[in-house]
What we know:
Blueprint: E1 2-14, E2 20-32, E3 42-46, E4 49-51, E5 56-62, E6 66-74, E7 80-87, E8 102-105, E9 108-115, E10 126-138, E11 144-156, E12 169-170, E13 195-201, E14 207-211, E15 226-234, E16 238-245
Parallel strand pairs: 5-11, 12-16
Antiparallel strand pairs: 1-2, 3-6, 4-5, 6-9, 7-8, 7-10, 10-11, 13-14, 13-15, 15-16
Amino acid sequence: NMETVELYFVSYDYNDCYAITADTVKLNLKLQFVPDPANAPKLSINGAKYDQEALNYTETIEAGKDISLSIIGQDFGSDEIELFISGMEFELADLGMEIQNISGQSPVTSEFYWITDCSMLNDSSVTEYTLQIIGRNKLKCGLEAADTILLKLKVIDPQREEVITFPNAFTPNGDGKSDTYYITELPKDTCKDRFEFVEITNRWGDKIYKSEERDFEWNGVGHPQGVYYYVIKFTESSFKGTLSLIGPNNN
Length: 251
């Protein structure tokens, strides 16, 4: 935004013989118009936390969950505002991020929506994606003032609640109550740690039952009452304990 103005200064000299001499000086003035940063749009994000130290917005999402945010551009005049949103080192569409660049009179809002999944962890337990948001308005004399903020979205492996206890006994006597051994609420799968199988052994370490189904049921048929041992195997963790087969087996 620069304009050039040319000024000419001419000096004339009239002598006694009516002769005229003259000289001319040309002065080029370059006028540069600099927008006042104070006139830039003010950007904010509803639904994300503002980090006072880093001067950016952040939000953490468990893989498999969705997130909705409102990106707002506003100034105190009637200038037209444009919002531009882009991913830093990635394309928004490649990750299924739904948002649009938008323009209009202040205030303007662009809605952001994203459904995450385990693939966005990139074989890690935490992956961060940074979005750059630019708000720009058009001022007088064709000038533009702009502001930029960053939005850092951290995708994490789903958190698993601490497992307290599992059932430790069943009575396969055919009365319709606790006739089989099963677990109604196994620990939930995470992106990195998923259920693989459950295995039951006797006191001598012989494997007598194995299932790769979460809704397994062991009826204990062919095995006497006594204490048995179970292992619930996940990709990266396992849970071990004992269970008792009580009374005669009428299954």
